TrEMBL record:
Protein name stated in the entry: Small-conductance mechanosensitive channel
Chain ranges of the Mechanosensitive ion channel MscS domain: 602-667
Keywords, alphabetical: Cell membrane, Membrane, Transmembrane, Transmembrane helix
Family: Belongs to the MscS (TC 1.A.23) family.
Domain of life: Bacteria
Bilayer disposition of the protein: Multi-pass membrane protein
Length: 775
């Protein structure tokens, strides 16, 4: 029995272990199938190596085009424009190569994870605990065989994919290293050129050239690099380009609507003197927006700047036609043509002897044309006198370019060549841009006189025909930036300033940068300005057919629209700066404590403003009466509202007081008002005739409503008269006082015609005890 018990126990334990192993084997095989399924799906959806090979080949091709003239076909010396274009192209190629490297690394890691998962599953000890029963063993062996047949092709595919990815990783790693090395070398060249910009790079222009490369190859190289830099930059700045187009569109809509107002009011002059901004709204919008917002494109390629300047010059030329005298129009066209030729020359990236001669000719033409304008120019016909300063500076700069070019200082000579023409063209564009902006503001002030100035952020009353000095300060700063971009040392001068703004600073646990703070304030300022502009144009009475209804219909939503814009601006500003939510929670907590202690009145007024916005018990333009004081609602703000009384005063009332006071809103009742008029007639009057006369007079008054109709009621026997009271409704409550006055005049005339008298107060004295003779 003991032996039987031992054998039974052993048999039970073996069966338990066998069942346990069978469960583990089933689980492992199921996990292996799932892992195989995931591996299959990944191999189908993973990025094709052909795409990676094509991108690497494209990077290799663009790299060879970029280093042409810098690492190969160097020539005698490097040029600033060639190094700058090559650096921008290589930086973009490096970013693409690094992005591809990260994708390949992730792909390789995923493949390794799948292989490791499969290998670890099929090597678990539980799989090798075979069943004792021969039938179960045969079934289990068959199951393992099926799993092995399924795993082998997947494992082979993973190995092949891993090998392919590894080969691509080797290629991309070499490419990244090569790009980084080349960029470092180019940065060294740029630093050396920035410090030695005054040194000679080439021989004198009449000496023999040290090396020679066909000019057609140089042109082709400049074209390829220019298109590459433009393509890469536009791909990375499509959002900014879209914003620029939107700004041009909205500016065009605004100027066109302003021109329409001037045409309708017949105040648009035929010669557009002082109104040039309205002559061609689209050209004005293009010139103003591009001149200002070209600075949102940081470090743009020169070819993009040329496109912007061509569009601006074309717009200004269209506006100048038949507006300025022919002499100065010809001067402008000559400057534009010379500038365009110099800009095209600046797109040539590698130095050559033919280009140096062409630069010399261009510089001589600049000096000659500038000297001619300064000596014989008709200054009395010039509208912007500062243009002469720019032309004089151009003449001096082009003279310097001639000297530098002749004596082998090619980079400095070329920078001076393009800077001279750029100086005068940009100066003219900017001068007329600020003039057009000032005209637009001044013209808007002339027609938007009924708009509340507190709704808009600009005080138009300070805008006149003279351009404010602030505009010229902005012009000078923009001119310096555009002028300095053409010199090799400009980036090294501006680099410390950029680093100062971009450096992260820490206060406690919070890290910030000045760029982030500026971005926060810029976004919030844009939100505030946008909300005020919406209020400004939404309250525009000049564009509405029914001015009263338009003002009331739009005005009720202004507060909600402004709150929405400001809220979105706040969230965008917080998101852009990256302020942590826990910091916002602390601010809200501190604000809650402040509300509990001393800001109850302020919060009450703010909440009351929201209640007014949603419930609309009162609206902009409503005729109201508050504590016996009548007036009209001019604006509803966040904290307070403005009510214009009939006496001419503006009452600024907190929103909390406005809701808590006994508010009478006459506009909610259809803008009608009932009035009464009390009249006394003599006792001997024919009352039926009196009533008929009054009703006839009331029925002929067009300013009274017919439903409800006027009512005439006899009220009481007074001491000297029988009192009759008239009840009537005026269609517009603003006419009630005038109508009442006119009715009194009409009733008095009607009573005289019909012999009805209005008695004046009188008393009879009786002396009963007195004798007649004593009287």
């Amino acid at each position: 029995m003991q032996r039987f018990a031992q054998l039974s126990a052993k048999k039970s334990a073996d069966e338990f272990n066998a069942d346990k192993a069978a469960l583990a084997q089933a689980r492992i095989l199921e996990e292996a199938k799932k892992a195989m399924q995931k591996a299959k799906s990944y191999l189908k959806t993973a990025s094709d190596t052909l795409v990676a090979k094509a991108q690497l080949a494209s990077i290799e091709k663009d790299y060879n085009a970029a280093v042409d003239g810098v690492m190969i076909n160097k020539g005698t010396a490097q040029t600033f424009r060639n190094l700058t274009s090559t650096s921008k192209i290589l930086s973009e190629l490096l970013n693409k190569a690094i992005a591809r490297k990260i994708r390949l690394d992730n792909q390789q890691q995923s493949i390794i994870n799948f292989r490791y998962q499969l290998d670890s599953l099929i090597s678990l000890p539980e799989l090798f605990k075979f069943p004792i029963d021969s039938a179960d063993l045969y079934k289990y062996i068959q199951q393992l065989r099926v799993v092995a047949l399924e795993i082998n092709p997947i494992d082979s595919a993973l190995k092949i994919s891993s090998t392919r990815v590894q080969l691509l990783q080797n290629v991309v790693n070499v490419r990244v290293l090569n790009l980084q090395t080349t960029l470092e070398e180019i940065n060294h060249y740029q630093m050396e050129m920035g410090t030695n910009i005054l040194h000679r790079e080439f021989v004198n222009i009449w000496d023999d050239a040290g090396s020679h490369r066909p000019f057609k190859q140089i042109l082709r190289q400049g074209k390829e690099k220019g298109l590459l830099t433009l393509t890469f930059y536009l791909q990375n700045n499509l959002g900014k380009l879209f914003i620029l187009i939107l700004l041009i569109f909205f500016s065009f809509i605004y100027l066109r609507s302003l021109k329409k107002i001037y045409i309708e009011n017949k105040i648009l002059s035929d010669d557009f003197e002082g109104q040039l901004v309205l002559r061609y709204p689209l050209a004005s919008a293009v010139l103003i927006v591009i001149s200002i917002f070209q600075f949102i494109f940081f470090s743009p390629p020169f070819i993009l700047n040329v496109i912007f300047w061509i569009m601006s010059c074309l717009s200004l030329t269209i506006m100048f036609k038949n507006f300025i005298v022919k002499y100065w129009m010809n001067v402008w066209l000559v400057m534009v043509v010379l500038f365009m030729i110099a800009a095209v020359d600046n797109l040539i990236l590698q130095a050559s002897r033919p280009e140096r001669w062409m630069m010399l000719v261009l510089s001589i033409l600049g000096v000659a044309s500038g000297a001619y304008v300064l000596i014989k120019g008709r200054r009395e016909e010039l509208r912007e006198k500062l243009i002469l300063v720019a032309i004089g500076l151009m003449t001096a700069i082009e003279l310097g370019s001639i000297c530098c070019n002749i004596f082998g200082r090619y980079n400095l000579g070329k920078a001076l060549l393009i800077s001279g023409y750029l100086n005068v063209v940009v100066a003219i564009l900017f001068l007329w841009t600020i003039r057009l902006i000032n005209e637009g503001l001044y013209l808007a002030y002339n027609v938007y006189t009924k708009q509340e100035l507190k709704l808009f952020y600009l005080n138009f009353s300070k805008v006149g025909k003279n351009v404010p000095a602030l505009f010229y300060i902005v012009l000078i700063v923009g001119w310096i930036i555009l002028f300095g971009r053409n010199f090799a040392g400009f980036d090294y001068i501006a680099k410390p300033l950029r680093e100062f703004f971009a450096t992260d600073r820490t206060i406690g646990d919070y890290t910030f940068s000045i760029n982030g703070l500026l971005l926060f304030f810029v976004i919030m300022s844009i939100a505030v300005i946008t909300s005020k502009i919406v209020s400004f144009f939404a309250s525009d009475k000049h564009l509405a057919q029914n001015k009263e209804q338009a003002s009331q219909g739009i005005g009720s939503w202004l507060l909600l629209v402004r709150i929405t814009i400001l809220t979105l601006g706040l969230f965008l500003a917080v998101a852009a700066v990256g302020i942590p939510l826990d910091r916002i929670t602390l601010v809200l907590g501190a604000l809650g404590v402040g509300i509990g202690f001393g800001l109850q009145a302020l919060v009450n007024n703010l909440v009351s403003g929201l209640i007014i916005a949603f419930e609309k018990p009162v609206n902009v333009g409503d005729a109201v009466e508050i504590d016996g004081q009548g007036g009209k609602v001019k604006s509803i703000g966040f904290r307070s509202s403005v009510v214009a009384t009939y006496d001419g005063a503006d009452v600024i009332m907190p929103n909390g007081d406005l809701l808590n006071s006994h508010l009478i809103n006459w506009s909610l009742g259809g803008n009608r008002r009932r009035s009464t008029l009390l009249i006394g007639v003599a006792y001997d009057s024919d009352l039926n005739l009196v009533k008929k006369v009054l009703l006839d007079i009331l029925s002929t008054e067009p300013r009274l409503t017919t439903n409800p109709a006027p009512i005439v009621q006899y009220e009481q026997f007074n001491s000297s008269s029988i009192d009759v009271r008239i009840f009537f409704w005026t269609k517009n409550m603003r006419d009630s006082a005038v109508v009442k006055s006119d009715l009194i005049m009409s009733i008095n005339a009607g009573f005289k015609i019909n012999g009805i008298s209005i008695p004046f107060p009188q008393q009879d004295l009786h002396f009963p005890n007195a004798k007649h003779k004593d009287l």
